[in-house]
Task: inverse folding
């Protein structure tokens, strides 16, 4: 087993084994289906710093590359969330045309575009050329690179951010210490960083198994997050609980360790609650494997019964679709095809299955009895969209137990 991604100890214990699964966003053409590789997927717990992390560490350059297909702008729900955050930042930090904003993992410019329209100086750092091209077409300044100490040394005279944003990025780096060290280097004394990270407490409590994939190297509690940044004399100055991705933490970071003042009441309370609930204890996590086995068995039985008597389609070629289709052993006999709004994913296949991804506009031409919504975190948006076309169709989600909506 690898060293801990945060504290580098080898004192890691396995808490979940999902077998071999392909890289979740590796949607491929029919010709390449047989060449899709699968890798060990599961979770380990660090006995020293309490970070939950992936069992198998895949080189991030294999994932976030020229063919990376996730585009944030295709989700109306996510765009609304981003706009709301943008407005909050403008008000809270009094940003103006003299301010500079840096977004790490800026994807297709979905968030920075709001700042650009307000003529606020902004930069993006995005390793995937496929999505950074879209941002550049919007006129956003994007560095096609991974955020690292090397990157900062090369560009710190260019970028002097007042605000740094990182939405669902910290979990996507296998180089946590280099990332946080780079963060400290590029921050001015009064720079504030905002990170949004899926909360490991929800993963365990709600059994969010389909949020586990190779791109997610780490799964943070507030305790493990705090342990990581404190090593670099960075501290949490505010905290919010948000609904995205099944429940996430929005964490505000500043420079310095203020030992003279007590921690923000909200932060100290949550740290205390985590310790009381034993999120820093191996026993809290080890129940996952046993619960999962029973859960998958029930879900496989239920979806099989429905697909044998009905026409079932899917919606959303998300990372979640790869995980659930592989774990539930679904194929085109159980899920006829998957509708997708993202044009870059259309006419490809869910990896390690023969389920084709097709244009969501084709839904009007096809009849289905059930629709499996794989990105269940966007189900309200999707149900409202589909109901305008077909009021009789029923919806299925795995959250994690199979649920049916009319």
Result:
């Amino acid at each position: 087993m690898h060293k801990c991604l945060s504290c580098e100890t080898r004192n890691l214990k396995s808490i979940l084994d999902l077998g071999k699964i392909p890289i979740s966003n590796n949607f491929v053409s029919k010709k390449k289906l047989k060449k899709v590789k699968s890798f060990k997927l599961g979770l380990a717990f660090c006995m020293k710093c309490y970070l939950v992390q992936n069992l198998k560490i895949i080189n991030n350059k294999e994932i976030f590359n020229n063919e990376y297909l996730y585009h944030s702008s295709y989700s109306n729900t996510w765009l609304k969330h981003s706009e709301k955050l943008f407005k909050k930042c403008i008000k809270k930090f009094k940003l103006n045309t003299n301010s500079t904003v840096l977004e790490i993992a800026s994807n297709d410019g979905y968030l920075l575009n709001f700042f650009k329209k307000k003529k606020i100086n902004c930069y993006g750092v995005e390793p995937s050329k496929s999505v950074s091209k879209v941002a550049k077409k919007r006129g956003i300044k994007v560095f096609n690179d991974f955020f690292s100490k090397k990157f900062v040394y090369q560009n710190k005279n260019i970028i002097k951010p007042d605000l740094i944003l990182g939405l669902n990025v910290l979990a996507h780096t296998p180089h946590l210490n280099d990332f946080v060290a780079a963060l400290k280097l590029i921050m001015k004394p009064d720079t504030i960083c905002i990170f949004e990270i899926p909360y490991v407490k929800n993963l365990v409590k709600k059994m969010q198994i389909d949020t586990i994939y190779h791109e997610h190297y780490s799964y943070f509690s507030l305790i493990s997050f705090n342990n990581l940044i404190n090593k670099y004399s960075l501290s949490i100055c505010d905290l919010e609980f948000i609904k995205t991705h099944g429940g996430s933490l929005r964490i505000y970071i500043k420079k310095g360790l203020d030992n003279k003042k007590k921690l923000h009441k909200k932060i100290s309370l949550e740290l205390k609650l985590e310790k009381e609930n034993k999120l820093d204890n191996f026993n809290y996590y080890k129940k996952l494997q046993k619960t999962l086995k029973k859960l998958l068995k029930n879900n496989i039985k239920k979806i099989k019964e429905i697909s044998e008597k009905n026409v079932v389609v899917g919606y959303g070629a998300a990372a979640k679709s790869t995980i659930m289709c592989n774990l539930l052993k679904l194929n085109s006999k159980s899920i006829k095809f998957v509708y997708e709004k993202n044009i870059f994913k259309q006419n490809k296949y869910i990896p390690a299955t023969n389920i084709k991804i097709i244009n969501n506009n084709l839904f009007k031409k096809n009849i289905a009895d059930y629709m499996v919504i794989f990105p269940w975190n966007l189900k309200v948006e999707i149900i409202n969209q589909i109901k305008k076309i077909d009021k009789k169709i029923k919806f299925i989600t795995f959250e994690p137990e199979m649920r049916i909506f009319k």
